[in-house]
Amino acid sequence: MLQAHPAVLSDLVERYESLHAKTDRTAVDPALRQQLDDVTYTLCVITGTRSLEQALAAARRRAGRGCGQASTAVPSSSTSASSSHRRTMPTTAIAG
Question: Which DSSP category does 3 fall into?
């Protein structure tokens, strides 16, 4: 089975955490929300999971980060990947 490179997983987790921190505010820019949804979807696809919590745990485990440095709080609106996403996983994210 193909698995993502640990550096790619680490980058995705960091990107998620950064975007999540920015969207914790009441008024969220729709473009920022879309980026968060996209990274959430990518994490789920790349880790083969169906929920954000599972994806973050798997990505951190595979990247060797353990529990991570930032908060793992997940907003209820982004706990699972939306089936409406049509983005594909970047081919550079896969290591053989």
Answer: E
More confident site: 30 or 28: 30
- Residue showing tokens 């599972």: 54
Over the stretch 29-69, which tens digit does the pLDDT of each residue have? 899 999 999 999 999 999 999 999 999 999 999 998 544 44
Q: Which residues of 37-63 are buried (b: 16+ CB within 10 A; e: fewer)?
A: bbbbbbbbbbbebeebebbbbbbbebb
Phi-psi region of 70 (alpha: psi -120 to 50; beta: other; left: phi over 0): beta
The DSSP bridge partners found for residue 80 are 51
Q: Encoding tokens for residue 86?
A: 């049509």
Q: How far is CA 27 from CA 6, 7, 22, 38, 54, in A?
A: 33, 32, 10, 19, 27
